[in-house]
Design a protein that fits this description.
The structure is a homodimer. Chain A is built from 13 helices and 13 strands. By secondary structure, the first copy, chain A, is of the alpha/beta class. The first copy, chain A, folds into 2 domains: 153 residues, Aspartate Aminotransferase, domain 1 (Alpha-Beta Complex), CATH 3.90.1150.10; 225 residues, 3-Layer(aba) Sandwich (Aspartate Aminotransferase, domain 2), CATH 3.40.640. In chain A, strands 2-9-8-7-6-3-4-5 form an 8-stranded mixed β-sheet, with helices on both faces. Chain A has a 3-stranded antiparallel β-sheet with strand order 10-11-13, with helices on one face. In chain A, β7, α8 and β8 form a beta-alpha-beta unit. The radius of gyration of chain A is 23 Å and the shape is globular. The interface between A and B is large, with 52 and 52 residues.
């Protein structure tokens, strides 16, 4: 988080009026440019997508996997061994505890909750639908699509604040004493939207804490585990090995190969996977093996995956640097905002003056700059302090990003001055 | 169905003993060959899979759809317009009423029932989980994976017999007077396993019958709509247009391009699709568009799809002819079996002497010929007459199929003689 030197509140009335005239002028000029820029979602850019174009011609005539499987025919509930082996090495987990699925890890998360709701999971005394009110821990700010799932099932979402080392574990340990608390969302590495990676103590407390519910689950959405911006790959903790049935761990190649057309993975304990497969086998025959084979051929091995990630880092790092540079140069001195400085992931979390986030997004929209809706990183879209904005720098080229972020800074200042 | 000339029951004791010695000898000889043949499931053969090998190099560098969509990035809940347009023409339905999904239509069926169970569908007064016993109509013999889904949700499955023109509609019309009857499985064209295509009167009665449940649904699994064996494509009725919200219609390219790696489609009314999408949007962002684009490029247009199907027909027709020829020559005279003579689809439904189907499958297994488990085409795997066996001729080459079917005929006769 970013401190400040000369805060807005310390300005004289004259200085304040002068600044407001200046910023209002900048905003009017911004509006007059009729921009159409978008910082809403964590989408890869065309430059990033070009990294994996060769994958789109695979597998070609090499449709037999190395274990002899003809990937063009039915069968194989848990996915191709070849892609599971590569990914298990990337994550540092056991192959037998890793399922390769279709393209969406979100699909897997939804199904895990849906099937626990209908039938209970392998540690449930009864289906979650037959519990009283199911409660769910939601570190905030967090990933909006997580919260949408638990809202859809009518779970009561209880927020705990994110800190620079993970969720506030004192609060989490207190909450899990309630047997109605059945689970928790986390993005443990380069998290959405804070960029925070959980430290060893946080992970240890999540592994060892006593929960009143025997069927409590942590949805360990490791979507950004290898999405470094500085080409340093942090160590990935094998929580499944440490945590028994507690962790449902997900990842995918959506932000590695093709967004929404990659391979998603589910890593969990033997018992959890047996339970999952008992339902997955009724839902269908198995995942798209052709797509999995293409990915295995394209990557070759775990090092091949890291090579791709280094290319992404080189594309993304200048964009993150540009956003941080503009935030610092435009807002640093006024004490009207704080922001995260991630070394990985897809987002920067910006906290503006409490009570002004919605106004900032509105001002930006009127100037042709689309930002993620204020509050989107909170359950029910409700940021109680109305201060958080998620910035997604990946999609636009640097030149556009620069224009957009300079505009956002103007909007942040103007909203602060209005208030 | 097949009649007979000289029935087993009309043989003299001497003739009977002579035949039994002969057949037992044939069976012993069969066993001594240590065969390993498989007629269990409706899998395409390698020869069929080779028809679409060119698809496996697509889309290559042409990853932009004709409407400008970069198929490598996120977005598009309902699937690519280009593949939806081609498939809508194949089915003769409106593009706006057709969703293109990932590879499995079974996944869609499961989700439709799951979401109706949890939240109710768009015509439900309450979620199906809050109903008393949900009941479901199952024409038999039918598709085992259908029955497994409704068994998994604890629905009471009520069987009605298939006739050569569709399910017994007198029984269906009677059953739907019960408000607990919420739906019905059907495979309306070249059905699994009978090969029957519903006639116009059957379809009309399904469209117009009064159901006590307002949220009653027919799962119209049109998996084999264009899977002709004689290159005649029967007319496909647009039941969605005729039937309002009653029909959930599914199809896929699993037995056209790659099995389990094609594109699945869901065709239904505007209201049904709005309801489906309201849940699908929470489960994920959208389907694999790269795979959809590859399919659109490979087919080109609806005629391209039919060209592929003609090639499949040329591969499959000799296999079906061989099975029918052996059944007729080996069993025709004895009155120990009846079988369907489909002009499309993937299966032949064989009825042996009541009480002997399990024994036939056991005898075949002991001789190294794997058949679908007796009873598999019935809910709970329970064929009350123990007479039905599903034959799947597609996978083995003709020479193997000939050996396998000759063996099966020996087993059918031996089981009949034992009884």
């Amino acid at each position: 988080m970013e401190g400040t030197d000369v805060a807005l509140k310390d300005l004289t009335a004259e200085q304040f009026a002068e600044l407001k005239t200046d910023i209002q002028g900048k905003y009017d000029e911004l509006k007059s440019r009729n921009l159409k820029l978008n910082l809403t979602r964590g989408k890869p850019s065309s430059e990033q997508l070009d990294i994996c174009t060769d994958l789109l011609s695979l597998p070609g005539e090499n449709f037999i996997d190395k274990d002899g499987t003809d990937c063009r025919n039915y069968g194989n509930l848990v996915g191709l061994t070849s892609i599971r082996e590569i990914w298990a090495e990337v994550l540092g987990v056991e192959v037998k505890n890793l399922i390769a699925a279709d393209s969406s890890s979100l699909n897997i998360m939804f199904d895990l909750i849906s099937w626990s709701y209908i039938w209970g999971n392998n540690d449930s005394e009864k289906p979650w639908k037959d519990e009283g009110q199911v409660k769910w821990i939601c570190p905030v700010p967090g990933y909006d699509r997580h919260f949408t799932i638990t809202e859809h099932f009518g779970f009561e979402m209880i927020t705990v604040p994110m800190t620079p080392i993970g969720p506030d574990m004192d609060q989490v340990e207190e909450l899990v004493k309630d047997p109605q608390v059945k689970g928790m969302w986390v993005v443990p590495m380069f998290g959405n939207p804070t960029g925070v990676t959980f430290d060893a103590d946080t992970i240890n407390r999540l592994v060892t804490m006593e929960t009143a519910a025997p069927d409590f689950r942590v949805v360990w959405d490791n979507a950004y585990a290898i999405h470094t911006l500085d080409e340093n790959f942090p160590e990935i903790t094998d929580v499944v090995k440490l945590g028994g049935n507690r962790f449902w761990s997900m990842s995918s190649t959506s932000k590695i190969t093709q967004a929404g057309a990659g391979v998603a993975f589910f890593n969990s304990s033997d018992e959890n996977l047996t339970w999952y497969n008992s339902h997955a086998l009724v839902r269908g025959i198995g995942p798209n093996k052709i797509n999995q084979l293409a990915h295995a051929q394209f990557f070759g091995d775990a090092e091949g995956v890291k090579q791709v990630m280094r290319k992404h880092a080189r594309s993304l790092a200048p964009k993150f640097a540009k956003v941080l540079e503009i935030l610092e140069s435009r807002l640093g001195e006024y004490g009207v905002a704080e922001w995260t400085k991630p070394t990985g992931g897809y987002f920067i979390s910006l906290d503006v003056v409490p009570g002004t986030a919605k106004r900032v997004v509105e001002l930006a929209k009127d100037a042709g700059i689309a930002l993620t809706a204020a509050g989107a990183s909170f359950p029910y879209g409700n940021d109680p302090e109305n201060k958080n904005i998620r910035l997604a720098p990946s999609l636009p080229p640097v030149e556009e990003l620069e224009i957009a972020m300079d505009g956002v800074a103007t909007c942040v200042l103007l909203a602060a001055l209005e208030q």
